[in-house]
Amino acid sequence: MKAYVSTLLLCALVCSCGPEPKIVKVEPIEGDATHVLQSAIDQAARHKGPVEIRLQPGVYNVYAESSTPLHRHISNTTSESENPDHTKRVALWLNELSDVTISGEGATLLTHGELTPFAIENCDGITISGLTIDAADPTVPEMTVVSADERSITARVHPSSQYEIAADSTLHWVGHNWDFCHGIAQSYDAASGQTLRCATPIAPGSKAVEIEPGVVKISYPDAHQFHEGLTYQMRHSIRNQVCGLISLSQNVELKDMNFQFLGNFGVVSQNSSDVKVTNCRFAPAEDSGRTCAGFADFLQFSGCRGKIAVNGCYFSGAHDDAINVHGTHLRIVDNPEPNVLIARYMHDQTWGFDSFFHGDSIEIVDCRSLNGNYAGRVISSTEQNPYEWRLELDQDIPALDPNGEYAVENISATPAVEIRDCYFTLVPTRGVLITTRRPSVIENCTFDRIPMSAILVSDDARGWYESGPVRDLRIAGCQFIDCGSPVINIAPEVTVPASPVHSGISITDNTFRLLPGSLAVSARHASDLTILNNQILGPVPSPYSFTSCTSINCQ
After folding, report:
1. What string of pLDDT tens digits covers the 555 residues of the chain?
2. How far apart are CA 485 and CA 452, in angstroms?
3. Is 141 exposed, middle or buried (0-12, 13-18, 19+ CB in 10 A)?
4. 48: phi > 0 → left, psi -120 to 50 → alpha, else beta; which?
5. Within a 10 A sphere around the Cβ of 382, how many other Cβ atoms?
6. What is the 3-state secondary structure (H, E, C) of 263-312?
């Protein structure tokens, strides 16, 4: 089998002097190319110095059953009850590599089944450029209603969406070794240019019949809320795979890529530093007729360091937020020794991985006020179980109020963020969520009809437990077109106010086209706000709102 794979690779190692990289050329093959691609990566790993894996133009089919099984816990994915098996099926696994580039101009990685197209772990200096990622069986099926009456709809199913109708007339969406019915849905309205979350057209009690191949009639026991002309996107709720994982790595760039379908979650950078996403397109293929490109978020950065840079990207057709940058609050559940804390993951979709490393600085945070105090550096972090970690610090901790609620934040794992020249549209929730204390900028971006806040500055230690305070954020030169209110929402989830949570936020030289009654900016529990030279379009008497804020310069 190894000889067969080597023959199929048609790889040529071109040796050169000086800094020029060695080249591993890979030709597309008929059928399953998973082993071919992984063999090229393994071949590159045997060479010292820079290596370029050059994928020749064509389609590379990758299958879940042929991919590398890895047991991984990934931030914001699934709970233990939702998905007891945390095996990720990874098509391209880059592990403990440095100075490797995968060039894919004209190449498409086409997934079959629920899998993780790529994982970059324990690496330094990895670039993936020019590659298109798509799915033969996208796990967000789509159908468009062509007619409707009071208790039924007739819908045309998109050709990429396969279905079966069971003996009890229940419609099931099916793919390569997966199927579901019911689930979660959202609607796409070409007239309004929005996608909104909604009830699913294949809810329990519905009955389906095939009118002709690709056209189904669905009947309901009562009146329904589905409309002619709308496209409905449906999915199950289990984020059992991700489109990409960047873990414990540094100096990684995704460049000039086309993410035409990201299933069953987006690209997650976790415990990594200095990650760039440059000139990438997150959207269905322009000639596909599909309206959805993402099962959930597009880009998630959890507990990262260094600098996160997302520049020149286009985001359209997600099922959740386009970009989310955050840390993680772990609840303090015990203080068994003066310099020891037991910290617990609280949200059931984030758990099972270490968030603290030797030398990291931490703060102890009051869960009610979200005010924190420095508590020392980490000497060791030891897993007690997949939810709880024992943190030994280099100094004793002041006694904690036994009636209080406290969490711990790793303040070393907080990146600087740069989001420039990006376009956000057809997102059902928010464009950017950002909670990091290091200098950050969102500049020259367009947010087009985002139905919730275009930008959310949160921080909480009760719900998602996504940390932490913002200390230096500039939002400048952006266009906000008919977004939800408030368009920019500075909203830490404080229950017992004390000192301001966020500070040092400037919102300048932006244009807000507001819907009637909307707010351009709402801020709570913040200080040192600068809001200047913004153009407000729309019949809005007062575009700004401030609650428990201090030191505001607003004109």
Report:
1. 333 333 334 443 344 345 588 999 999 999 999 999 999 999 999 998 999 999 999 999 999 999 999 999 999 999 999 999 999 999 999 999 999 999 999 999 999 999 999 999 999 999 999 999 999 999 999 999 999 999 999 999 999 999 999 999 999 999 999 999 999 999 999 999 999 999 999 999 999 999 999 999 999 999 999 999 999 999 999 999 999 999 999 999 999 999 999 999 999 999 999 999 999 999 999 999 999 999 999 999 999 999 999 999 999 999 999 999 999 999 999 999 999 999 999 999 999 999 999 999 999 999 999 999 999 999 999 999 999 999 999 999 988 988 899 999 999 999 999 999 999 999 999 999 999 999 999 999 999 999 999 999 999 999 999 999 999 999 999 999 999 999 999 999 999 999 999 999 999 999 999 999 999 999 999 999 999 999 999 988 889 999 999 999 998
2. 7
3. buried
4. beta
5. 12
6. CCCCEEEECCEEEEEECCEECCCCCCCCCCCECCCCEEEECCEEEEEEEC
Instruction: Identify the DSSP state of 81.
Output: T
- Look at the block and give the residue holding tokens 């068994």: 336
Phi, psi angles (nearest 5°) of residue 71: -85, 110
Q: DSSP character for 487?
A: S
3 state SS of 323: strand
**How far apart are alpha carbons 164 and 338 in whole angstroms?**
61
The residue assigned the tokens 């950065």 is 301
What token pair was written down for 43? 């071949």
Cα gap 459→524, rounded to integer Å: 12
Euclidean distance between CA atoms 345 and 332, whole angstroms = 9
Tell me how many degrees the CA angle 140-80-181 measures, rounded to the nearest 5. 30
pTM of the predicted protein model: 0.95
Residues 118 and 92 sit within 8 Å (Cβ to Cβ): yes
Cα gap 182→273, rounded to integer Å: 39
For β-strands 184-189 and 440-443, DSSP reports them as unpaired
Question: Quick check: 119 and 244 in contact, CB under 8 A?
Answer: yes
Residues 230, 228: Cα–Cα separation, whole Å:
6
* Token code pair at residue 253: 């760039």
Collapsing DSSP to helix, strand or coil, 505 comes out as strand
Strand residue runs (E) in 406-514: 406-410, 416-420, 423-425, 432-434, 440-443, 446-448, 455-457, 466-467, 473-476, 479-481, 488-490, 502-508, 511-513
Pairing of β 526-532 and β 550-554: parallel
Pairing of strands 340-344, 330-337: antiparallel
Phi, psi of 476 (to 5 degrees): -145, 145
Cβ-based neighbour number of residue 195 at 10 Å: 26
What gap in Å lies between CA 319 and CA 233, rounded to an integer? 9
